[in-house]
Amino acid sequence: MKYFKILVVTLFFLTNNLYAQNASITYNVTSNASDEVLSLSAKYNLYINGSTSAYYSNNDDSKKYEDQLFIVDTDKIGGFKEVNIADNYTGYLVQDLFYKDYNESTLIYNELIGTKKVIIKENINLIDWTIESDSKKTILEYECLKATGTFRGREYEAYFAPALSQRGGPWKFDGLPGVILSVRSLDGYYVIEPLEIAKNTTDNSEILNVYKGEKLIGWDTYKIDFKKWMVKQLKKLKSLSESGENGSIEITDRVEDLEIGKLSF
Length: 265
Description:
- With 265 residues, the protein is mostly beta strands.
- The protein has two domains: 215 residues, outer membrane lipoprotein receptor (LolB), chain A (Clam); 43 residues, no CATH class.
- It is 11% helix and 45% strand.
- The strands form three sheets. The chain has a 13-stranded mixed β-sheet with strand order 1-11-12-13-14-15-2-3-4-8-9-10-16. The protein has a three-stranded antiparallel β-sheet with strand order 5-6-7, with no helix packed on it. The protein has a two-stranded antiparallel sheet with strand order 17-18.
- The radius of gyration is 20 Å and the shape is globular.
- It starts with a strand and ends with a strand.
């Protein structure tokens, strides 16, 4: 099997036709895919034009609570929703939105630290892909090539379609010479599959940066701030515990490894 590393080259002579190609793709995204009880799925849209893209959840994440009888109410709070449940549990939900600017090679998206919404900026090319040129398959009538890569604690395989557009992909997946249509982690935790593709659409000819003017932080700062929040929660837990009791907090259900580990007292 032939393998080769991607060489990222800036091409100043790309044709206007390549830059003009727009694409709209609907994906089904599943986390905890290998666990029938904890598995969650949601639909996402990806809009691409020549220099920008937007990837966002197109459904209301609070709906997964509304099917349960113990729901009390849902209220919008700024950019996210607070979901109050009868057993005194409060959940916070935010609509995911990932904006990519290929001219600037930047990825900007929102996250939560507890109840605080933060905006994170990263480089688009986060994964060092290896293309397997002999591995091909057809996805929704597009011939796709296979690529593999490791990203923040998980190994992934992806299939991308060079004929659809020169670049782009769902979530933080990008950096291949074609649109990424399908991704799965090899441990079965995270799976992204396309449901529908529309090429050369007119409704996404202009994609605006909704985060313009917002305060941006980097990934390393986000990890530091998230750990500080966890330490704060641990102190609260300790203050409510009896003398001599032990306790701990650990992140076990995230796509990305925050490199924090278990915190104990």
